[in-house]
Amino acid sequence: MLEKSLFIRALRRQPVSRTPVWIMRQAGRYLPEYLAVRKQAGDFMTLCRTPELACEVTLQPLRRFELDAAILFSDILTIPDAMGLGLSFVEHEGPKFANPIRDVSMIERLPGADCIEDLRYVFDAAKLIRQNMPADLPLIGFSGSPWTLACYMLEGQSTREFKHAFKWAYDEPLALHLLLNKLTDAVIVYLGQQIEAGVNAVMLFDTWGGVLTPELYQTFSLPYMAKIVQALKAKYPTIPSIMFTKGGGQWLDAMANTGVDALGVDWTCDMAYVSRLVGHKVALQGNLNPAVLRATPAVIREEVKKVLSAFGSGPGHIFNLGHGITPDVPPDNVAVMIEAVRA
Amino acid sequence: MLEKSLFIRALRRQPVSRTPVWIMRQAGRYLPEYLAVRKQAGDFMTLCRTPELACEVTLQPLRRFELDAAILFSDILTIPDAMGLGLSFVEHEGPKFANPIRDVSMIERLPGADCIEDLRYVFDAAKLIRQNMPADLPLIGFSGSPWTLACYMLEGQSTREFKHAFKWAYDEPLALHLLLNKLTDAVIVYLGQQIEAGVNAVMLFDTWGGVLTPELYQTFSLPYMAKIVQALKAKYPTIPSIMFTKGGGQWLDAMANTGVDALGVDWTCDMAYVSRLVGHKVALQGNLNPAVLRATPAVIREEVKKVLSAFGSGPGHIFNLGHGITPDVPPDNVAVMIEAVRA
Predict the structure, then answer these.
(1) Which of B68, B75, B185, B261 is catalytic?
(2) Minimal-distance CA residue of chain A relative to B160
(3) Inter-chain CB proximity A170 and B249 less than 8 Å
(4) pLDDT value of position B84
(5) pLDDT for B90
C-alpha cells in the first residue's frame, strides 16, 4: 500500500500528484484533544511510556487534518533515559536529567545498546499505531542525533551556551567521541527496532548541530549521523531516512553527501537556493516559518505558495514547517496551511 | 595617528604588519575590575549613564591586554529607552521594557530622532574616552540594528520565539516598516553624534537578524542597515562601518553588497569559505568560537591559528570572537588568545 504514499514517493524523489505534507510536532500541545490525554496521563513521560496513550495522541492530528504521514509520539531523550540519566520534565523549563555526565568514568560506565531493550514501550507504541492507522499512510520513527543527545547528557538541561558540551569538545575530544560512539550504536539499534515494529521512514533530529563551528559539526555531529543512516540503509534498504540539523543551512551540501534520502530544511534557508544546491541528490522537507501559523489565513496561504514555488516543480519535496509547531497555534490555522498545500 | 592603526587599516583592506584584534564585550563581567565599577554604579544603566564610569570600564581591558581597539561602553537598547519605553535590567533575565509596543498608535506616537538628544551621556562618554585613551588606538562606536531594536521594543524582553515581532512582520508589515524607519533615522543621528564625539569606526549589532527567513531579512533588517551605512558614509566618508548579523552566515554576500566596509562573522561560518566569497569586497571580523576561551591554553592557541590561517594571507582581517565574550571566561585565557594572534 505504501508504494503509493506521496510522502514515501517524495522521499525517493519519485513523481507525485501533489506535494505531501506533515508537521513537526503535529501531535502536540496546540491540540485540545492532546492536552486532554496529557492531563489523563499525569506527566509527559507517562504519556510516552503508555503505548495506548502514545498511539491515541499520534492518531489525533490524522483525524483533524488531511496529513500524509504520522510521526510516532515519543521524546528525543528516551535513549539517555534508558542509559540511566533519569529524565524528567519541569513545567516551562523543559527536560532535566537527574544524573548528567560529569566525568569520563560516567561515560565509560554507560550501558551499551542493550539498554534499548528498556525502550520496549516505544516499539509497542509503534506496533499499536501501525495497526490502528490507515494502511496507506506512512508512520515516521525518529531519534535525536548523537550530538544532540550528548548535549543534553552533558548539560543536564536546556541551555543556550552549551558550556559543558563545548568544554568536552575542545578539552576531552576522545571522551566525547566515546560517548558519541555509544550513542550512535544505541540509535542504530533503536531506529532498527522502530523499523521492525512498523515505522516506514526514520528521521534524525539534530536540534543542536547548528550551534557548532563547521569543523566541530564535521567532527562531532555529521559523521555519527552518517554512520546511522548508512547502517540502517544496509539493513533496511527500503526505509527512507531524513536528517535535520536545525541551523545547519550552511552545511546542507555535506549532509546531502552522507547517503541520506532527505534533508530537513529550517526557515532561515532559501528553499530555491537549497533546491538548486542539493535537490538533485536528496529530497527536501520544509521549510515554512512556524511563526506563519500565527498570522492571518491570507498570509498563511501566501507563504505556503512561496515555499512551494521556491522548491520548484521537480520531485522530492515534502512540505513541512522549518521547525516544530508551537503550542499557541490555532488548529484552524493548521487546516488553512494544509488546504493551501493540497490546493 | 590613526592612519597607522592596524584596526583601521584592516577595515580598509590595506596591508598590515599583523592581524589586529579586539573582543566583542571586552569591557565586561569577566573582568574583576569591571565588576568592582559595576558594583559602585549600583545598576547597569547608571554605569552606562555616568560618563566617568563608562570611560573607566571602556579603558580597563586596554590596561590588561594589548588590544588594537576600544569599544565605547554602552548598551544596544539606549535608543528605545530614549524613545520612552522604560529600559531596566533584571538580574539573570536581561533587558526589560516597562512599555513595550503593543499597537500601531504607539509606533505613531514614538518620538523622532530628536530623542537622541537625551543620549548626551553616550556622547559625553565617547568624548571622555577619546581624550583618555592612547591617540594611536581607535575607538569603536555602535548601535543595535533597527530590526534588533524593534524586536526588543515589540517583545518587551528577551525571547526565543519572537512571537510579537513575527506577528507584526506578517500581519502588520507597514506598521513595522514605520517603526523601522523611525529607528533607522534615530540610529543615523545616534551614530553620527558618536562620530562627532570622537569614535573612529562604527558597528551595527544585528543580534536577531539570524532568526528571520531570507525574505524577511531582506525586507526588515538588511535594507535598514544598508540605509544607515550609506547615510554615514555620505557624511563621514573616512569612518569605516562594520555590520554583524548573528546567525547571518547564509546572507553574507547580500550584506557585503550594501557598501559596508566590514562584516562581523559568527563562529558557525567557515572563515575560509567566507574569505573566498566576500573577502574581495569587504573586511572580515571574527570568528573564534567564544567557547574556546573556556578551553586549555594549548587549545586556545591551536584554534586561534586555525582562524588566522582560514582567513588567509590577504589583507582585511580583524581577529575577534564570533560573538561576545561570556562572564565566566578567565582573563588569563584572553591573554593567551591575544598573544597567539600577535605572535
Answers:
(1) B75
(2) A160
(3) no
(4) 96
(5) 83
Would you call B43 a catalytic residue per the annotation?
Answer: no
Query: Which pLDDT value is given to residue A79?
Result: 98
Nearest CA in chain B to A250: B250
Cα–Cα distance for residue pair A73/A122, rounded to 1 Å = 9
- Residue B320 contacts residue B264 (beta carbons within 8 Å): yes
Nearest CA in chain B to A170: B295
What pLDDT, in 10s, does the model give residues A58-110? 999 999 999 999 999 999 999 999 999 999 988 788 899 999 999 999 999 99
**Pairwise CB contact (< 8 Å): A291 & B163:** yes
Q: Which residues of chain B are modeled with pLDDT < 70?
A: none
Query: For every residue of chain A, which 3-state class applies, written as one string?
Result: CHHHCHHHHHHCCCCCCCCCECCCCCCCCCCHHHHHHHHHHCCHHHHHHCHHHHHHHHHHHHHHCCCCCEECCCCCCHHHHHHHHCEEEECCCEEEECCCCCCHHHHHHCCCHHHHHHHHHHHHHHHHHHHHCCCCCCEEEEEECHHHHHHHHHHCECCCCCHHHHHHHHHCHHHHHHHHHHHHHHHHHHHHHHHHCCCCEEEEEECCHHHCCHHHHHHHHHHHHHHHHHHHHHHCCCCCEEEEECCCHHHHHHHHCCCCCEEEECCCCCHHHHHHHHCCCCEEEEEECHHHHHCCHHHHHHHHHHHHHHHCCCCCEEEEECCCCCCCCCHHHHHHHHHHHHC
Average pLDDT over residues A32-56: 96
Contact flag B303-A210 (C-beta cutoff 8 Å): no
Nearest CA in chain B to A172: B295
To the query of whether residue A103 is one of the catalytic residues in this protein, the response is: no
* Chain A positions with Cβ closer than 8 Å to B: 161-163, 166-167, 169-171, 210-216, 247, 249-250, 267-270, 289, 291-292, 294-296, 299, 303, 306, 326, 328
Give bridge partners of residue A285 from the DSSP assignment: A264, A318
pLDDT band at A25 (very low <50, low <70, confident <90, very high): very high
Q: What percent of chain B has pLDDT over 70?
A: 100
Q: How far is A253 from chain B (nearest CA, A)?
A: 13
- Please list every residue in chain A whose beta carbon sits closer than 8 Å to the beta carbon of residue B289: 166, 213, 216
Can you give the pLDDT at residue B1?
Answer: 78
Q: Which of B161, B250, B295 sits opposite A167 (nearest CB)?
A: B295
Residues of chain B in contact with residue A163, where contact means CB-CB under 8 angstroms, are: 291, 294, 328
Mean of pLDDT over chain A: 97
- Find the helix packing angle between B163-171 and A297-311, rounded to 10°: 90
Chain B neighbors of A207, CB-CB under 8 A: none
Mean pLDDT of A156-183: 96
Q: How many residues does chain A have?
A: 343
Establish whether the linkage from the previous residue to A287 is cis, with ω within 30° of 0: yes
**How far is it, in rounded angstroms, from Cα B12 to Cα B315?**
9
Q: For B13-71, write each residue's pLDDT tens digit.
A: 999 999 999 999 999 999 999 999 999 999 999 999 999 999 999 999 999 999 999 99
pLDDT at residue A1 above 90? no
Instruction: Give the list of residues 6+ apart from residue A56 with CB closer than 8 angstroms, or none.
Output: A37
Average pLDDT over residues A116-125: 98
Q: Is A342 a catalytic residue?
A: no
Catalytic one among A30, A49, A68, A75? A75
Max CA distance (Å), chain B: 56
